[in-house]
Amino acid sequence: LLQTMNDSGMRINSITYNSAIAALSKAARLDAGPDPNVLWEKTQHILGEMHSRGVRQDTFTYSSAISVCGSAGRWEEAVRLIHQMKDSGTNGTKRNKIVAFTSAITACANSKQWDPANQLFQEMKRDGLAPDLVAFNALIGAGMAAGRPDEVYHLWREIGASNLSPDVVTLTEVLYTLDQARGKANRERAESVFKDAVSLGLVLRCDSLDTSSEFDLSRMSPSVARFAVLHIMKNIVKTVGRDSSSHPSDLSFIAGTTRMREHIRTVLRDEVSQSLYCTVPEREQGSLVVKQKVLQNYIARQM
């Protein structure tokens, strides 16, 4: 379309150019879309044409172009565009600048480049741009890709100390990072993160279909499901400890798939107690049940 407009001698303004780059950015994010490297070449051509024609590039231009960089794995180009945006004194709202920085951080994350991603995040803050949750999640994603459990855990705490609320994406990536790192310290951190998430209503919500004896873990990632099981079992023991008259019934975990079902079984057996024998209901193959007597014996040994 741009070529047709050029051939017709039509004057093309920044809005039209930005729309073209935004379309390339959207196409680059499609799983089965065109080759991102080809899209990046087209983006470079449009940026060059804007420059040669004296059409001013704004923060929207840069954020869209940087998004294409990320999909093409060109994190160095993304960082260069951020600095070009700053050096040129480009006009734009704070929101658009935050989006541009976040796109650059995501580009670094896609290439497992923790240090450049973190540098951009800190640069944002020095420039007076308060990171939003999307920016935090982008940096956490970089930490997850690069295997940086300490930094990822501290980012979780930083979100908690701000006016932001983490979401399921935050939780999933933080727990995955801590889970992969292994070790007692990281397990304790992960259990603390999951406890925070329950308090915030991200998981095991009191207004969900979950009850004291049935829990739906089917839409959780394996790492989140692991710490959900550990949290649930600890809470059951605590509940009986506070009220000795309570009598737990059969405990059911809805897994959804055979793979998740066996993952939950492994966590119960290897991390909670080998005595926690589980059964699979004949008509509910996606579920796992700990019978009342087995559960009572387990609780008695913990008291």
List its salient traits.
303 residues, mainly alpha, three-stranded mixed β-sheet, 14 helices, 65% helix, elongated
Structure description:
- The structure is a single chain.
- With 303 residues, this protein is mainly alpha-helical.
- The chain has 14 helices and three strands.
- It has a three-stranded mixed β-sheet with strand order 1-2-3.
- α12 links the parallel β1 and β2.
- It is elongated, with a radius of gyration of 25 Å.
Per-chain topology:
Elements: H1 2-7, H2 14-28, H3 36-52, H4 59-71, H5 75-87, H6 94-110, H7 114-126, H8 133-146, H9 149-161, H10 168-181, H11 184-199, E1 214-216, H12 222-242, E2 251-254, H13 258-272, E3 287-290, H14 292-302
Parallel strand pairs: 1-2
Antiparallel strand pairs: 2-3
Helix pairs in contact: 2-3, 2-4, 3-4, 4-5, 4-6, 5-6, 6-7, 6-8, 7-8, 8-9, 8-10, 9-10, 10-11, 10-12, 11-12, 12-13
Outline of this structure?
The protein is mainly alpha-helical and 303 residues long. 65% of the residues lie in helices and 4% in strands.
Side-by-side strand order of the widest sheet: 1-2-3
Strand content: under 5%
Shape: elongated
* Helicity, as a percent range: 55-70%
Main sheet: strands, sense, barrel: 3 strands, mixed
**What gap, in angstroms, lies between the N and C termini?**
73 Å
Based on CA atoms alone, the radius of gyration comes out at: 25 Å
- Which consecutive residue ranges, at least 5 long each, have pLDDT under 50? none
Number of strands: 3
Mean pLDDT, to the nearest integer, reads: 89
Structural class comes to mainly alpha
Order of helices and strands: HHHHHHHHHHHEHEHEH
Number of distinct helices: 14
